[in-house]
């Protein structure tokens, strides 16, 4: 009994000292926006974060002052473009999360955001290449299928591209899929894991429902697949011109950022998440970025998994996704 108590106390101390020495700076770019604010709130609660550095072109001093009163163990700073704000925000960052850019309105596709968001993302990539070339970069800004290649090209141009450290955040598709499947199967979503592969827009989003261990009728498969692929449209329509998913995205972004932190500084093993990375899975078909399950480790995206066993139904979805993805990726690379 005594020995067990001592062992527990020791393990608890060791866990505390590991996390205490591995705390780290996380920068959020676009931090005053619809996603940026709740995402920053959730990151303020993350025990791996020592310094939460908030950058936006407007309003970050207020957001930072507000969050800085929360009694968790991280410092919060707010930066705008004035006084080398972007450099200050990025310097020594271990993780950079990017929800900067405009959201959709009803009737728009994510690709319609390209013209505005491509330049925003490119500018942020050039700054990250200069001020935090070793950071893990998590891209939320749409269209993700193109903004990730845009970011990669800017890092390559600066000679600092590490494909293990650049991630398109597709976690919202995974979160939605889990919720939507749980709803129709009357389950707790925490017991429903759905791997979603491909990209992050319409037909490029491919849920692998055959791998959930659940049975679906053809009608259920059609309805769920459509809802997962076009879940973003539901929110855009409901928000009626005022934006797209922000709160669920903040939840998903904070979850993915936590996975990266746990694997890179928390010493956790076996962290596996779908994410849109430079990938060999369909490189032979000219699709250089693809989301599959990726094992995260101290250096980032360390092991990219294949699709695993998929159904004929899912193969058709993949066949439909690849040409669209290739088009989106090329558009980003050529920007
Ligand atoms: P928003 O307009 O509410 O916020 C965006 C913020 O970015 C604003 O505060 C704006 O000032 C800031 N910004 C603009 N240019 C900037 C720059 N150069 N540097 C820093 N900040 C800058 O929009 P939102 O609802 O937060 O959405 C942001 C982006 O995230 C959109 O492109 C949206 O489509 C995308 N999104 C992606 C997912 C996903 O699953 N990956 C989900 C939801 C939304
Ligand atoms: C989403 O999936 O909710 C986001 O990509 C935002 C959008 O434009 O739908």
From TrEMBL:
Domain of life, source organism: Eukaryota
Catalytic residues as annotated in Swiss-Prot or TrEMBL: 200 (proton acceptor)
Reaction catalysed by this enzyme: (S)-malate + NAD(+) = oxaloacetate + NADH + H(+)
GO molecular function: L-malate dehydrogenase (NAD+) activity
Record InterPro entries: L-lactate/malate_DH (IPR001557), Lactate/malate_DH_C (IPR022383), Lactate/malate_DH_N (IPR001236), Lactate_DH/Glyco_Ohase_4_C (IPR015955), Malate_DH_AS (IPR001252), Malate_DH_type1 (IPR010097), NAD(P)-bd_dom_sf (IPR036291)
GO biological process terms on file: malate metabolic process; tricarboxylic acid cycle
E.C. number(s) listed in UniProt: 1.1.1.37
Pfam families: Ldh_1_C, Ldh_1_N
The Lactate/malate dehydrogenase N-terminal domain, residue ranges: 25-168
Keyword Membrane appears in the UniProt entry: no
Residues the entry annotates as binding NAD(+): 30-36, 56, 117, 140-142, 249
Cellular component annotations (GO), alphabetically ordered: cytoplasm
Keyword terms, alphabetized: NAD, Oxidoreductase, Tricarboxylic acid cycle
Residues engaged in binding substrate: 104, 110, 142, 176
Enzyme class: oxidoreductase
Lactate/malate dehydrogenase C-terminal domain segment(s): 170-335
Subunit details: Homodimer.
Similarity comment: Belongs to the LDH/MDH superfamily. MDH type 1 family.
Protein's name in the database: Malate dehydrogenase
Biological source species: Absidia glauca (Pin mould)
This protein's encoding gene: ABSGL_06019.1 scaffold 7611
